[in-house]
Amino acid sequence: MNNKVLIANRGEIAIRIAKACKKAGMIPYGIYSEADNESLHITYCEGAVNIGGLLPIESYLVIDKIIEAANKLSCDMIHPGYGFLSESPKFAERCKKEGIIFVGPSTEVMAISGDKVKARRAASKVVSVVEGDEVSSEEDALSLVDKIRFPVILKAVEGGGGRGLRILRSKKEIHERFVSAQTESMMSFGSRRVYIEQYLENPKHIEVQIVADSSDVVQLGERECSVQRRHQKLIEETPSFALTNEMRQDILGKAVSIMKEINYDNAGTVEFLLKGDKFFFMEINARIQVEHPVTEAVTGVDIVEQQLRAALGYGLSVRQEAVNSIGHAIECRIHAEYPMSFAPVAGKVKEFEIPVGEGIRVDTALYSGYSIPQFYDSLIAKLICHGNNRMDAINKMILSLSTLRISGIPTSIPFHSSALRDSRFVNGTYDTSFIENVKPFSSKDGELAAAILSAIPRRTRSMMQYLNEELGTYDDAWNASRFDWADPYDVHRRFSESSSFGWST
Questions:
Q1: The pTM is what?
Q2: Residue 322: partners with Cβ closer than 8 Å, 6 or more residues away
Q3: Average pLDDT in the 269-286 region?
Q4: Torsion angle of the four alpha carbons 293, 270, 303, 113, in this order, in degrees rounded to the nearest 10
Q5: Which whole number is the average pLDDT over 275-291?
Q6: 116: which residues sit within 8 A by CB, 6+ positions away?
Q7: For residue 320, how far is the Cα from the chain centroid?
Q8: What are phi and psi of 52, to 5 degrees?
Q9: What's the gap between Cα 25 and its chain centre?
Q10: Which of 89, 126, 439, 447 has minimal Cβ neighbours within 10 Å of its Cβ?
Q11: SS3 category, 377
Q12: Nearest-5° angle of CA 440, CA 207, CA 419?
């Protein structure tokens, strides 16, 4: 075995995997579409193959092209990353037939975890599930809804990340949205299969990170993922402020039991909805998650490294008794989107500058001069901050957001800066309705301030922001909220009483 790994993905996760491969002494190779010929992830690979096409269905979702690239580069392993074919049993089976190691669970496990209907049935032996089933036509959907009642949620069977997902509250909406959900599922995952289940209004979204090999299943704690737009996560944190110790042990134990039930091997996530004090199984993500860095921050466990070890048959290097979570971590997913409407945009990045300092991590494939293509997800960077406690992490994130500069395109940074100051977030009382209940102000002043501030030398900006925080004035308009948020003086006081942050310029 020559330990050449083909990364069947793009962007920041491809770079993340390439770094892990090099750390483990393996050689990363890549693929790229016509739209990604200037993507930064190519430079992190020893070599890369142009697989053509623009849309995912023409490139990153074409199994034959990826297998051909792996053979051309003499790669004996494929890491699928997240999204695209990462949870496709067909892709895992094809890799097996070609004699290529798939960095993920076995094909037998993928047949269950990659199929949300089968996963629900397996999980129901361990934990409560909401009522629902797969439907193949509008007529089937109407018949099922007559039994379980509105509201319901329509999902892609073989996908995730909110793609193909619709909340339906009437028969008219089933008629209007059923076909579009199937189409989006096909475009994103190569499958038209969908299912419907009862929709829980405004729950909390809690997930548990698992790493496993053929003999052991280890949980690395939970993540709170309730700040979402279009059912896609925007902010994640660990540990969850909402859980008591008893609730935490309950959900962690249930996640391990579910994974043992299906003989899960490799890294994966069990997702739950929390309503009141009761957990409901949602789904299994049989892949690395976008938000895995927050778990890495508090545990010190390199999850991609564990994936590679499990796939190669070396076994995990971490055991449950050795897992020790320290502090608190938060991740903000930065998107190329208008911060008020969350409408995605494509365009050229003029200036890109990231924050630095202890406990600050940025995962991205962005660079100054890069043209963001319109064909893929709008995620362009992940900002992760690790603190001694939750308030320390929030404080560090707010300051880090103020020095993350992306000019030339609108981004979600103003939203994140506002969200972390919202009293519901500060108090930990938020749920999946968080964004729906945010009341936006005019964005004109904020955009003008951002443009002015980006022209100020970095050291001067840092001093201005430091003084604002110290004095509690918050007169830096870049940080001024465009949304309703907690009283700034109260937030500053609480930060000061519970944490400290050393500024790095």
A1: 0.84
A2: none
A3: 94
A4: -130
A5: 94
A6: 155, 156, 157, 158, 195, 283
A7: 24
A8: 75, 180
A9: 27
A10: 439
A11: coil
A12: 15
Helices 89-97 and 63-72, interaxial angle, to 10°?
Answer: 30
Take residue 110 and report the two structure tokens written for it: 């993928």
Q: 371 pairs with which residues across the strands?
A: 348
Classify the C-alpha dihedral 232-238-242-248 as positive or negative: positive
Question: How many Å separate Cα 345 from the centre of its chain?
Answer: 19
Among the listed residues 10, 163, 166, 287, the single catalytic one is 287
431-452 mean pLDDT: 60
State yes or no: is 319 an active-site residue: no
Does residue 158 contact residue 115 with C-beta atoms inside 8 Å?
A: yes
Q: State which amino acid sits at residue 136.
A: S
Rounded CA-CA distance 413/376 in Å is 19
State both tokens at 5.
Answer: 């790994």
pLDDT in tens, 366-383: 999 999 999 999 999 999
Please give the distance of CA 461 from its chain centroid, rounded to a whole number. Answer: 30
229 and 379 in contact (C-beta within 8 Å)? no
pLDDT at 470 over 90: no
Tokens of 383: 């900002």
Which helix (H) or strand (E) segment holds residue 89: the answer is: helix 89-97
pLDDT reading at 260 higher than 60: yes
For the chain, how big is the Rg over CA atoms in Å? 22
Confidence of residue 481 (pLDDT cuts 50, 70, 90): very low
Identify the structural domains of the chain with CATH numbers, from first to last.
Answer: 4-103 (3.40.50.20), 131-198 (3.30.1490.20), 201-326 (3.30.470.20)
Q: Are 10 and 41 in contact (CB under 8 A)?
A: yes
- Residue 311's CB is within 10 A of a number of other CB atoms, namely 22
Closest among 221, 454, 424 to 320, alpha carbons compared: 221
First to last CA, the chain: 45
E strand segments, 230-327: 232-238, 266-275, 278-285
Q: Is 261 left (phi over 0), alpha (psi -120 to 50) or beta?
A: alpha
Contacts of 134 (CB under 8 A, 6+ apart): 117, 157, 193, 194, 195
Residues of the chain by 3-state class (helix, strand, coil), percent to 5: 35, 25, 40
- Measure the CA–CA gap between 94 and 78, rounded to whole angstroms: 11
CB contact burial 11-32 (16+ within 10 A = b; e otherwise): bbbbbbbbebbeebebbbbbbb
User: Is residue 238 exposed (0-12), middle (13-18) or buried (19+ Cβ within 10 Å)?
Assistant: buried
Q: 129-150: string of b/e by CB count within 10 Å (b at 16+)?
A: bbebebbeeeebbeebbeebee
3 state SS for 331-354: EEEEECECCCCCCECCEECCEEEC
**Burial class of residue 442, CB neighbours in 10 A (0-12, 13-18, 19+):** exposed
Nearest to 400 by CA among 388, 412, 415, 417: 417
